[in-house]
């Protein structure tokens, strides 16, 4: 009985510690993004390079992913408004037949952004990797992040911690209750994981030689 009690106390302590880290992470992320997330191109400061965070082109049902389409639209808006000159597309290309950067490149070209202005990062497997690689591989100390607002906030916090002067442009979100709830839970957990990545300054899955944009 004594061992079971110790195990129970240990488990409860771990759960409480994890919950505390999650709460602190979310508070820090939200505070760090204040005044740095924009929803209008009129208010956006200029940054030479935009970092477009990748997502899948098709949803779970095989239909077009509205998050993907809205990020493409947002990026095209910034480019047409003269707020960015180059677009670094960072996404997942970890398996055959799945290539977020290439899918986004094709969509950006169709939206009117010249192919010569687009640079691809095939090792942006997660947001932390994308942000660190933007600085260490692609040499960016200043950029505009493009994604949905909840995602932008986490990216901005990472940018701040690794020494990147970043602002963000919010792509339109999706007002579907079940989807928003699922993403909210996933984002909460991702922010918790982010704390440990930054605490121990983990390297991305891949780095490699520097690439000039």
Brief summary of the model shown:
The chain is 49% helix and 14% strand. The chain is of the alpha/beta class.
CATH architecture: 3-Layer(aba) Sandwich
Quote the average pLDDT. 86
Q: How many helices does DSSP assign?
A: 6
Q: Write out the strand line-up for the largest beta sheet, numbering strands in chain order.
A: 1-6-5-2-3-4
CATH superfamily, called what? HUPs
Count of DSSP E strands?
6
Note the main sheet: 6 strands, parallel
Order of helices and strands: HEEHEHEHEHEH
Query: Which spans of ≥5 residues are poorly predicted at pLDDT below 50?
Result: 6-16
Overview of the molecule:
With 213 residues, this protein is an alpha/beta fold. The chain has one domain: 3-Layer(aba) Sandwich (Rossmann fold). The chain has 6 helices and 6 strands; from the N terminus they run αββαβαβαβαβα. A 6-stranded parallel beta sheet has the order 1-6-5-2-3-4, sandwiched between helices.
């Amino acid at each position: 009985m004594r061992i079971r009690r110790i195990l129970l106390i240990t488990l409860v302590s771990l759960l409480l510690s994890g919950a505390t880290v999650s709460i602190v992470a979310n508070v820090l992320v939200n505070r760090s993004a204040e005044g740095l997330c924009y929803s209008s191109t009129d208010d956006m400061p200029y940054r030479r390079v935009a970092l477009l965070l990748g997502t899948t082109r098709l949803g779970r049902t095989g239909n077009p992913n509205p998050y993907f389409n809205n990020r493409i639209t947002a990026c095209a808006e910034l480019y047409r408004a003269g707020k960015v000159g180059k677009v670094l597309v960072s996404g997942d290309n970890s398996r055959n037949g799945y290539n977020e950067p290439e899918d986004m490149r094709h969509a950006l070209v169709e939206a009117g952004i010249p192919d010569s202005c687009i640079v691809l990062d095939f090792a942006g497997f997660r947001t932390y990797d994308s942000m660190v690689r933007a600085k260490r591989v692609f040499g960016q100390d200043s950029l505009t992040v493009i994604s949905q607002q909840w995602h932008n906030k986490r990216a901005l916090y990472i940018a701040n911690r690794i020494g990147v002067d970043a602002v963000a442009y919010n792509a339109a979100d999706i007002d579907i209750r079940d989807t928003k709830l699922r993403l909210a839970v996933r984002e909460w957990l991702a922010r918790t994981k982010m704390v440990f990545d930054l605490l121990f300054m983990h390297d991305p899955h891949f780095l490699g030689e520097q690439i000039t944009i």
